[in-house]
Amino acid sequence: MTNAPDAKPVLQVRHLTTSFRTDDGIVTAVDDVSFDVFAGETLGVVGESGCGKTVTSKSIMRLLPEHLTIYGEQSEVIFEGKNIIRANEREMRKIRGDKIAMIFQEPMTSLNPVFTVGWQLDEALKYHTNLSRKQRREKAIEMLRLVEIPNPERRIHEYPHQLSGGMRQRVMIAMALCCEPDILIADEPTTALDVTIQAQILDLMNGLKEKLHTAIMLITHDLGVVAQVCDRVMVMYAGRAIEFGSVREIFHEPQHPYTNALLESIPKRGSRRSRSRRLPTIPGIVPSLRNLPKGCRFNDRCPACQQRCIDEEPELINHSLDRPVRCHFPLNQKTQTESAH
Amino acid sequence: MWSYIVRKLVYNVPVYLGIILLTMAALRVRDPVAGYLGKNATQEQIDRLTQDMGLDRPFYEQYGKFLWQIVRLDFSEESWAQRGRTVKQILIDAIPPSMSITVPSVVASAFIALVVSLISAYFRGRLIDRTLVFFAVLGMSISYLVYIIFGQFFGAFLPLHQQWEFTPFAIQGYEAWTSWSHLSVLGLNIPYPNGIKFENWIEYCMLPVIIGVIVAMGYDTRFYRAVMVEESNKDYIVTAMAKGASKPKIMFVHMLKNAMIPIITRIMATLPFLITGSILLEMYFNIPGMGRELITALIANDFPVIQAFVSVLALLFILSIILTDVLYALVDPRVRLS
Amino acid sequence: MIVKLIKSRGMRRFSRNRLAMFSLAVIIVYFLTAIAVMLGAVSRDDTKERVGPNRLPGFLEPIGAEKRYDFDKWWVSELTNVFERAARENARAGGDPRAVLDEFALAERTIADGSYEDLKPAFDAMTEAWHELDDVFAEQLDLDDEAFAIRDEIKELQAEGEDVADLQAELEEVEALLAELAPRAEALYQQVEANIEKLLPMPSGFAGLVYSLRTMLGTDSKGASIAAQAVYSIKIAFQVGFVTALVAVLIGTISGAAAAYFGGWVDHAVLWVVSTLSSIPYLVLLAVFVYAFQAPALAEWFNNPERPALALVPLYAAFGLTFWIGTCRVVRGEVLKIKELEYVQAATALGFGRFYILLRHIIPNTAHLMFINFSLLFIGAIKSEVILTFLGLGVKGQPSWGIMISHGADGVTNFFFWEVGAATVFMFVLVLAFNIVSDALQDAFDPKHV
User: Could you tell me the pTM of the whole model?
Assistant: First the structure.
């Protein structure tokens, strides 16, 4: 696990702001989020449901309904030197599935029920490669073998409903990876699966990352999954990125009270607390995007909330070295940098 | 597959028995003989007709006898209102006129509605979609009867009355497809319609067909669009987008194949009406089809005809439902193997 | 249950839909009108009473020359009739001609005040003018025919390329004669109409307003007010729609919920009935039910003129028995889903009775479906009523939009659209409003299903 990412970023997201036109007016689901994805790494995006994780990933892929979605003026998603947030539909189609691929939470419904597995694998190859029909078929079988599906020659003739949930997610992964994309966005890929299958799928993704050298952006609310596969972590809350860090940093020295609270709410085996006391939970609920609190968005649930938190929203600042956090009073600061006030 | 069909058939037997029971009971709530003969009939006349029809027998006996008739498709009683014609004859003669209206109108309305709803679903939320939906609701809010009255007025009456150059449609009547001939193949008598003339069809049937299509348009478009929009919201659409599929590909391949399942069901559900015909159109345009015969029989208290027609219609209805299920299984892979 | 529904999120979304709120207002206006009719604002007699000549057009349509003649002729003959009877009464010793005159009335429009002798001159003037007009009119018709024939001939000759100068001259001559007659006819028309007005003055004040409302949409083929019929029909539509939708929704919800919740033989039985009934084409089923309810004993009971409300019972029954099927299916599907939800499971685990859970926890959660279905069935009932009435199986003895449309259908071929038109517009607005409301309800409670 490398702490400092080696090469240059494959994807740079800058000031991503995504809003929707709704019946109640314009609602901003992702507010000024910036981050990088480096080649070969796994970036975990963590947060409670409704915090903007999925919208972030769909904005990168531009999968949101175009006529209802507004991207902020300054939003940039830079991929291969181009701002794809302003790219047209044809350019996007060339990127989707080929350069950036995505897998989804619900393997049960994410595959088209009326087409065979083989047809659906073939489709992506048809759009992005010049292979012949026979070559594509071989490639499809190869991909199914790669995701460890037994009997791929027979499976390609089957329909999604004939496969188990885990199998379907493997098919989704095979489909996403068949054009060897630079980035794989996995939106809660294991949430809908049994725990044992979850582990298998995560192992599989880890293995494939090494093999194909694909960067993975893993979206999850499950910190266990993050610990297992991620290199770096971005924590999101109510549409904002609130903390960045390596997995080790996040787990051992969380700086944002929200991250801390998230970690507290995981049961820990062997710790004294789990035996004697109740598992702590975060009081309150995620604020509605229609009705955000003034100041820090976490202020009403924060145990260390002070007047300043209610008055002004904190900026994303490096309090420690290369650990941006959006908090006025961060925890666990090792090397307090005496930067400009 | 075969076991599936057999299972469906067996499942529908009690349903059909129920229909016959219900029909026979409903038709006996009032005394059909007294109703037909009127107040001036003598007791003797009433008794005779009651005996002829077997209406004096216990109900279960009548029920059994009628079922046996249906099994053999033997409706050889004489009609009360149309002396000299058997129920079977009336039934067979009424089918071709009905079909010459309904077949074209179902085919045309399904096709047009499919195209319109695809346009609507493709431009979902845009002006064109809203306009189409608005017109569909508007169209649905007008009575069928008003469409027929004004359709006939503007389509046939006004051109003839004003002596316009172009008067393709007759005001009413039917002379398109009147009789059956039989073709003997391998000892089987295969009936085929005799005397089809296309000009006649245009003159007598085209206007009702157009009206039927216009009426169906609102309902069909809305239903098809709702199905399509629902499919467009499914996860697999996003998957296809993420794969890099173009919007037409997504709409016409991924979405349409899924949407076709409920749409085919809906079209199949109208199949029995191919034979029963549109009662209103037939009544208004004086087309001697099944619907018209049935309503005329109801008004004239023609008991044998009513009973036989309702039973046969229900039988056709059930068969078409079974056919729908089978077709469904063919289209939807999820049904086929479960 | 209703309070809960109104407070629900879907209802809030619904109330934000402006078009739907407007449509709801339209429905309320109709509803209030129906209540007003029920309280006697428009009685059944009002819908039958003669208010003018047959097929009088409504307020906007100008009356053509031919129709003007026909309408004036009707007024003249009615008045002649009355005055002849009055004259006979006058001749009889001790007779009271005024009483005869008082008998005549077209709703609010009665014969002018004054004794028989006072009115006699106006009547005589009218009769005299009318006789003259009769002759002029006949002459006009003859000349018209002549002109028409000449024009035909000109057309024919022109097609053959022959000279038509003679005929043109002849035509001009006829047209000149016609033009000469026109002002004379007009003067006579005015004379006749002025006298009619003198004998039968337009009532003033409130009565005048009522009378002009009555004739606003014209009269039907029996001279009865179309406006009164159209308004009275609102009541019938609400009766039929409300009763049948209510009955059908109740039967459908209870049977559907019970089938889904209890399962087992209840489910089998309900499904059997549902598939049986839905295996008969809907219009045929309706027709058979209506037929069954026409049994002489029943018909006598229902068609008792003293209890006109009962006359609609066969229709209610036929609709109610057919319409619940759809609701039952939808509710059954929904309850199958609700049954698996945690709170129902929890209620079961806590040991609440099954009927209690069904009534307290399950059926209230189908309230939005009940509303949507109610609205859809309401429309269905109104539309089916029209169709059944046309087929001779529907409403009898009371005005309804169905009766108006099927009666008015003959008028259409005589270019008289008011009767069909009025019924259509009244019905269209109500049905459209209901369609919009039920659409908005569906959108609000099931946003995905747009």
Answer: 0.82
